[in-house]
Amino acid sequence: MATLRNPLGNTIPAFTEHAISVSLPKWADNVGYEEGESRVLNAMQTGYPRFFIHLNIRKLSSILEQKFSIQSEKSLLFPSRQAAEGCRTFLTERDVSSARVVQHCISESLCVFLVLFPETNFSIAKQFWQHTGLGISSRFASHILATLTSSISPPPTPTRTKPMAHRHYSAKPSRTPSSNGSEPLEEADQDQAVYLEQRYGRNLDVAAAKQAKGALRRRIAGVLVRDEGAANGEVEVTQSVRGVTVTEDDVFLFPTGMTAIWTAHQLALDARGARKSVCFGFPYTDTLKVLEKWGPGCHFLGHGLDSSIDELEAILEAEQARNPHEPPILALFTEFPSNPLLRSPDLARLRTLADKYDFLIIVDDSIGNFVNVETLPFADMVVTSLSKIFSGDSNVMGGSLVLNPARRHYTTLRERLFTRYEDTYYDEDAIFMERNSRNFAQRAAQIDANAEHVCDFLHAAQQQQPPSPITEVYYPKWQTAKHYAARRLPGGGFGGLFSLAFASQAAAEAFFDALACDKGPSLGTNFTLACPYTILAHYTELDWAAQYGVPGSLVRISVGLEDTTWLHRVFADALKAAEDAHRSESNAGT
Questions:
Q1: If residue 497 lies in a helix (H) or strand (E), which one and from where to where?
Q2: Which one of 3, 61, 330, 430 is at 20 to 30 Å from 412 when CA atoms are compared?
Q3: Residue 27 maps to a domain
């Protein structure tokens, strides 16, 4: 029996204060999380940041609520007035008329904005936090807490016995017990956490955030030649590898990938008027929520197949016949490939329709990534979750939006974006993202190779007799393969993500429980990470998801940088467990 790599509730990676994943190592743990079991919730030291409010953010909220709250109000914290007012408007439109915004400044340059509302409306406010990703980051909260503490008491005198950590990066004591019931982390463990996050001293000083953000934008634009010295001003640029002549000025940074998606939709509404959009293919859950909850709604073509484009054409023709003087839709949002079914749309055909009917195309390339596939030539905007493989270290969030200068609405979109864009990407987060992404292309190539090795093994096992417990390997090599191949770059791979469907629930649970890798939310990490995707993303709508080919037993795996021998052994062991469980269930039914 494989031992757990990381116990329930621990951060992934371990000893990482700002980790963006949490260990949910058993199938039952994931169900327990969705059902609110205290066994699971009380063990959680962290969670994915848009779903789980970091303990330091909670602590800061509690402190500020004591100062500003009236009649048991709760709060959410934002880095700017514009973001806070967006949350207040969201609440007001949902009949929370008493929501209000308060600005609190610790210094002239350090302010936080509270949105205060009745405690009973917390779940509504949390929707805005989750769908937009506009809330403050855990590092921002940690910095404010440290500043508040230092204003009350003088800092301790440094000693020569151990090096001082950068005060912005210092880990704070956890007030949550660990999953095994032990006490909070001791001082030595805190030092280890700081060391792991700052290892090798590769971070720039926080004062260099402007340079770090410039390096990130050049890297995302695909114009940077020498990554290692880019943030220090040693810049060498060339023609963009994105397939379109873009520069760093066409790249905009955001605190999360969902912020980039939400902004793309807001930008489209602002620039082109309120009309329905199209969500093409079964997307990551919050993308669809954004299109449904802001503006007049959307047409959902959840299968994302060629037949879905036929449906789209029928919608476009009907809408244009109804109102021939207006574009029939606002924009089409799609992923390339999609999460979790790894389907790739026919971008060329969609582009032809967009040009004919005058709508925007927004592509999310987080799964494919721009070193593997070329999507920008077919899009008006490309959005990316930088939190995934671009970072890899699972310790910082970020997102980007790239405008395509070759598209007809570029000038209008760029002008409108400049009027509404504000840089709320916290400087220290940008520093970590810049450091993590320096070797992005090399890591992506190795992860691609590892994932293909694992998928080839599992796909071969699926074909074997007696029937395998695996019924489908969702991977771009086999799902809508011709469309992925059409956009695949020379030397590009199939990405690091795949999903598995199983012949029985018992087989799925046995496979997942036996899989001896980290297990929790997120993807694109430098280490292999798995989750029962549909349970985590659609637990309250399992039947709805199943209508679009996303079964409740789906297991999604993001392959990492581990040795292929280890990967083969780990997946072979999990497959054996699934085979045994499926065989036992089949025998019991005969």
A1: strand 497-502
A2: 430
A3: no
